[in-house]
């Protein structure tokens, strides 16, 4: 792993110059152009990400797993915490606050009031209520009214290994409303089954599930983890033109015998970051994302569990 990586800083950018105008004057601009202040600081070849995910005081899940890696890749990231908990919900207890849809929209309106809603990417993860998810859909519409080229990367966090850990009604909202507006979808095996109604027991089933999701909307689909027999796989699919056969691939993921949380959130963030750098090569972006995640997990497991061994 490289050392000495620095966060991007705006101090190395062009100095900000504020126009000599009445601050109450409403500036009219093209819907495609970022506000003049932000356009000076917009990272080249990356972008500005609005990340709406969970947050924990202790541990790394949601935004705590996603924001820093994206910043290291050169992105400007604005996080909105859908929940703020003391720790992740795998512990015996947790405390904290849950943001509702009205509060989310209030934050969006606050950004809009100051012309701060120009984003190149929207990233969403764990959403715990239907009202909040419906507000996310409003956010997508609002952001695309400002930047029609907005890329929406959705990690439809609903469950894993056959267990649903969100209300059942969220499944249909994801399937019927969220999937059609997503640019990239990153479900795990169980979530892909929920979204497609297809039981995934083979590589071909995974590829078929990707085709079903393409037909519903997103041109890029990555099933981030599939357990097939004794293999852990990633299945990716990129439909570059609607109605045309997608480019599909698989990556065999080496297993690390340790327990981790937040890896799915980190994986989706890495996929966003690298797929933007390789927009026409989802396989390459996925390879880099997987290898990055492997290095991080392996480094942690050898520090925390020095007697763990690597399973290939």
Automatic annotation (TrEMBL):
It comes from the Eukaryota. This is pyridoxal kinase. Residues 127-228 form the Pyridoxamine kinase/Phosphomethylpyrimidine kinase domain. One of its GO terms (cellular component) is cytosol. It comes from Ananas comosus. Belongs to the pyridoxine kinase family. The keyword Kinase applies. Its EC number is 2.7.1.35.
